[in-house]
Amino acid sequence: MNKPFTTDLRHRVDAQTYADQEAVLDQLVRQADLSAGERAAISADAAQLVRDIRGTTQPGLMEVFLAEYGLSTDEGVALMCLAEALLRVPDADTIDALIEDKIAPSDWGRHMGHSTSSLVNASTWALMLTGRVLDDDQPGPVRHLRAAIKRLGEPVIRTAVSRAMKEMGRQFVLGEDIDAAMKRAEGMEAKGFTYSYDMLGEAARTERDAKRYHLSYSRAIAAIASACNEEDIRLNPGISVKLSALHPRYEVAQEEAVMNELVPRLRALALLAKSAGMGLNVDAEEADRLSLSLEVIERVMGEPALAGWDGFGIVVQAFGPRAGTVIDALYEMAQRHDRRIMVRLVKGAYWDTEIKRAQVEGVDGFPVFTQKAATDVSYIANARKLLGMTDRIYPQFATHNAHTVAAVLRMADDPETYEFQRLHGMGETLHTLVMKRNKTRCRIYAPVGAHRDLLAYLVRRLLENGANSSFVNQIVDEDVPAEVVAADPFEQLGKSNLPIARGPEVFLPTRGNARGFDLAHAPTLKEIDDARDRFRAHRWEAAPLLAGKAKPEAPVAVANPFDPKDQPGTVANASEVDVQIAFDSARPWDAPLAERRRILLRAADLIEENYGEIFALLAREAGKGLPDCVAELREGVDFLRYYAGQATNTPPAGIFICISPWNFPMAIFTGQISAALAAGNAVLAKPAEQTPLVAHLTVELLYRAGVPRTALQLLPGGGAVGAMLTGTARVNGVAFTGSTATALKIRASMAEHCAPGTPLIAETGGLNAMIVDSTALPEQAVQAIEESAFQSAGQRCSALRCLYVQEDIAEDLTRMLTGAMQALHLGDPWNLSTDVGPVIDEAARKGIQDHIEQARTEGRLVAEMPVPAQGTFVAPTILRVNGIADMEREIFGPVLHLATFKSHELDSVIDAINGTGYGLTFGLHTRIDDRVQHVSERIEAGNIYVNRNQIGAIVGSQPFGGEGLSGTGPKAGGPNYLPRFAAPDLQEARDRWEDAAGALPSLPPHPPVKPIETLSMPGPTGESNRLSTLPRPALLCMGPGPETVNAQARAIEALGGVALRANGEIAPEALTDGPGYGGLLWWGDEDTARAIERALSRRTGPIIPLIRGLPDTARVRAERHLCVDTTASGGNAALLGAMA
């Protein structure tokens, strides 16, 4: 067996992932070893190269294109978005909508005639004409004429734009297949260039994809072999391969499968390349796969059959602080296996993605440099390192930057020992000049692939080279002096003005971010294992935690849903006596505001410090996988910090009951409690019957932080305990998360026993849908669908239940989705490799499985997976439905219901989704901005997600909660949540009705949908988060008496709501079947208020609150949050455009 990548080397590489960048740069400057005089000479050489390039008559098309349509222009961004999607869209209607969406709003005319290229000018002319035809914003007859032209001309426009996109792609992709590419390469080969062919395509999502890519690479190697006629392998063409194309789960969590399945595939390709006498380069991938890539490379490099082959190549990205360490590791590998290898040094790809990932994960640092000059310095310093290793390494310097080229030329002694590389379609003039003058070699990195793949590649090139500061953008811009284009990056270090928040800072000043855990980082994984391993067999004991002496029931065992033999602990449930003790002992938390804040923040710190025990307990008690454990702990911490920051001195409600679910037994439990405590209430908390242990641990940590027992008491138990807690007049408010059915039972109990108008904050379930149209990138959509439907075994209230796919792409997307589902791993949630764990208990498993079996008998089963023999597992399953109306209830597990729709049926689909009465989460995948706006304005859901998954709302960024049957509001983790825990502003009216009876007013036929207010919420780069409030269904003002009715209406309308005025006394029993008002206001006697509450509690449908005082904002306005992944079309144009 080959010796694996040595532990020491891997540790060294991993240890540098989040290295202090200033320290790394200091070392790189020393490593570059360039005096001030040498740096000045390099800049002068580079400036002369720039002048020489500008003096040629034929600058490259990419340079010309970027000079005209960079990221600083709306047109450039629009063209990028159009190019990314157009050629994969199969249906004419959607193509027309996409073209209109991207072209009509832009000002193409101002680019006419600016460019030095006839092709760019021709494209501008065509786009300008198309934009004018598509722009309907003209008055009178002109508008009608253009509408007529538009109708007649859509097929012509469609054809012209598609041809323009294909022609543009042809400039930057060598050929649609390897034979066409090799034929076209002959022209440049005659000029002395050699080639490395790159087979385009997304990463494999399925095993079928991986096998197809492997076959494509194999055939390409066989074809290229015919052109490998030189003894010196460096003079022959080569091929580049992506490891992510060879395995659908190429990630650290699946390392064992990667070693068993991917390594043999790469080894086979390497043996083919050796026999052909050609080089094979392994492309760089995301930073979180770097050490895994090195492990794979080591296994293949050590293959004895590859001895004597000097063609194995590896790409190293200079934008990573680890680049030098990686080069050292590769050199040591080559020495150990007695090999000579090729190392391709690049600046780096997907920089913006690395920044966003680090922010999303909350880690304190970045795996890439945060300023462009640092990457340029890193490149030069590591070029110096490579030039000193030519006994084992053949350096390949991939760059279009004249300064970088000049630096390499200055540092290198022998042009035979290295080569330059450039992308096809870019840098031709620069490298032709250098080849002639300096006798250097240059290889062209040439993409090969179908039109649907090439435009995604083109978009990436536009993004990475389209910033105003990029060399490629500036090279043909005569307004930028050559000396500026060729500026010394060493002089620019530390001068960047681009502020990029680190993980802990992303949500400041709203709150500090919870600690992040990079689950692809070996040192972090070891730290987690060390912290939780001592709890692998630990047994916890849970019991009531009271301010008085508890008298609980006898202890019973708590089950592990994965392993019935493992009992993580016992729970002694609260007795009726314990409930009475808790009420008698409860006292509002009257500590000063600053002290309450300090204690809640200390509790957040304690939870972070005890992550090992919490992770272990969540895995064993709730069946949660490690990513879900991390997310849960972070959410609980975020709630504590957010509500601590939101707290005010407003008087508290009094005693608040908090009833939380088993699917988020720490996060939601902590969120409810921390809000109630931040407002100064006394809290009686009942965790879910299945998960008392983690609740007990959380409360103990809150006590350690300083929360007094009189302010927080824990009462574990089942439904009987919940009924006792909510069935007494001593309750001043209830926060509940769980099923809609249970929420209605609590509502009925409160109507009988609590003071009328006692607030119930209910967050319930949803029939959550997603719509995927034909402009969506299938690979991206499938990943989002899989995460939304199957992560956490589908046991999230936000999880995707019904997927609508446009029928034009349904067959291909369903095939990819089922293949991706088959690549999931079911097993022990303790293991990082597990994607889907068990459902919570046998009752849940049976209910879900019965639903699947019913669909199977009806012939609606699309796909399912096998399940482990042990544990309460349900296989991820896809069932076919006609639409969401076929779903009678929420199936709380890993079951996805699949429907299709025709492009013209979009509004009917929206109507069907709204018609369920639920409104929690909704997902949309499209590249059409107008469609995003249209759908988000029409869909009735509390949280809307665009071009991403629809789970995992972030506290203070994506306030969470639904409407209709999905909850009462206000949204948890949002600005309107905490006021509901304060004492209500009760009103007592002295007015009365003169007439005996009044009629129930009807709801307005068309409720207003225009937002009253929209807030931009904090969040990571590459994501837009906007919280809007809009009027709820009209609130009924019942007085008593006309003056009170008018006062109530004025209060509602002052907050932007819609008020309906009663015209007389309305009998409470009439409200049982009346219209679905947003709420009722009654400021009169308590007996009538009690009768109103009882009538409202007997209603079916959404919970309608009785409001006995002045309404708060969330009573009057519904909250809707819209989250858009702004990087979906290929990258973060805003961040890349601003990078300096």
Q: TL;DR?
A:
By secondary structure, the chain is α/β, with parallel strands linked by helices. It has 39 helices and 30 strands.
Radius of gyration: 32 Å
Strand order of the largest sheet: 19-20-21-18-17-22-23-30-25-24
Query: Strand-residue fraction?
Result: 5-15%
- Largest sheet, strands/sense/barrel: 10 strands, mixed
The separation of the N and C termini measures 47 Å
> What average pLDDT do the residues reach?
91
Count the beta strands.
Answer: 30
Low-confidence stretches: 116-134, 138-152
Shape field: elongated
Count of the domains = 5
Helix content: 40-55%
What is the CATH architecture descriptor of the largest domain? Alpha-Beta Barrel
CATH overall fold name of the largest domain = TIM Barrel
Structural class: alpha/beta
CATH class of the largest domain: Alpha Beta
Please give a structural write-up.
By secondary structure, the chain is of the alpha/beta class. It folds into five domains: 7-59 and 174-448 and 475-502, TIM Barrel, CATH 3.20.20; 63-171, no CATH class; 522-762, Aldehyde Dehydrogenase, Chain A, domain 1; 769-966, 3-Layer(aba) Sandwich (Aldehyde Dehydrogenase, Chain A, domain 2), CATH 3.40.309.10; 984-1117, no CATH class. 44% of the residues lie in helices and 12% in strands. It contains 39 helices and 30 strands. The strands form five sheets. Strands 19-20-21-18-17-22-23-30-25-24 form a ten-stranded mixed β-sheet, sandwiched between helices. Strands 1-2-3-4-5-6-7-8 form an eight-stranded parallel beta barrel, surrounded by six helices. Helix 3 packs across helix 16 (402-411), helix 6 (92-103) packs across helix 8 (140-172) and helix 22 (522-533) packs across helix 25. The longest helix is centred in the first third of the chain and has 33 residues, at 140-172. The chain starts with 6 loop residues before the first helix and ends with a helix.
